[in-house]
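User: Earlier you gave me the apo prediction for this protein. Now I'd like the version with pyridoxal-5'-phosphate bound, so I can compare the two side by side. Same sequence as before, with the ligand SMILES added.
Assistant: Got it. Here's the input I'm using:
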Amino acid sequence: MEINLAVLARQFQLYQAEYEAVALRALRSGWYILGTELENFEREFAEYLGAKFCIGVNSGLDALTLAIRALGIGAGDEVIVPANTYIATALAVIANGAAPVFVEPDEFYNLDAEKISAAVTEKTRAIMVVHLYGHPANLEKICAIARKFNLPIVEDCAQSHGARFCGKMTGTFGVGCFSFYPTKNLGAFGDAGAVVTDDENFAREIRTLRNYGSEVKYHNKIAGVNSRLDEIQAALLRVKLSHLDELNAERKKIARRYLNEIKNRRIILPKILDGAEHVWHQFVVRTDNRAAFQKYLAQENIQTVIHYPIPPHLAECYAPLGFKRGDFPIAEKFADEVLSLPMFNGMTQAEIDYVIEVVNKF
Ligand SMILES: *Cc1c(COP(=O)(O)O)cnc(C)c1O
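And here is the structure of the complex with pyridoxal-5'-phosphate:
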């Protein structure tokens, strides 16, 4: 048996007829950008989350970058960023001329709420949280800290579509920034993203920024960007959104089997924080002998990936920031030990059985 980390074709095949029908509808409409498919998707996704406004943009990185910009954050400002995350989270801060201030992760791989206060200075302008791997960050504690320091929260929800904390959707605790990159739980068939907010003025600002800074055609109030979510992607996303809960339920079932049936004292399984509803974008395990484990799995035809091998503070592009190995030892340890097991919609029981059997034999 040969198992990949994610087989996107299976996700497509699950609802192929529906995707093909709406793609044709979008093609035949004669209207391809900023039309009714996007308006409907924005309304439906906001409703799904329990938020007032959703603004479609071109990618998750754009959602984050425009959110930081619309908060008025720029040169001389600092933003709290998890040390254990994908590079995009920090990039959005740096792209606006501000400085990321990294904070170590907790045992759930997310921003450690206990360590935020010590990183706040008079230059701090926002707290960014990432719900990494689909596991909501400790929003109860983080929201309390944000209130205490009067700081806005920016949520990187690129991996947490449909994940709740204490019954409330991630993306509605602060400014919600989503990616619909094809591998994400709510993935398009190309690049796409969105910003979610309850604040009408903030929503208008993002809507203006994404379309060259113009609210009225050819009247450019601000120097904006071109970051729009295409009609054809919006139409396809509406189909996937209508199935998101069942797609996440399937991921939860796969995770439940891994959690119950992987029994190997060399492998550390993921834990779930009280109040967090995990949507399992990735199923990430840890071992102190990762290279051997990954090689063994590859020999047994199980493909795995490391999310992520280099923490942002050690990324080559950030060398000018002056960080070095040892600055964030917990994030560095995770980067050395984590490995993502196969987890995707359309995975068969036989494939899940095989992964469990092979992992247990390591
Ligand atoms: C995928 C991802 C992004 C970026 O999304 P794009 O749509 O690829 O720009 C940002 N943050 C995290 C945590 C991600 O996983």
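For your comparison, keep in mind: The longest strand covers residues 124-130.
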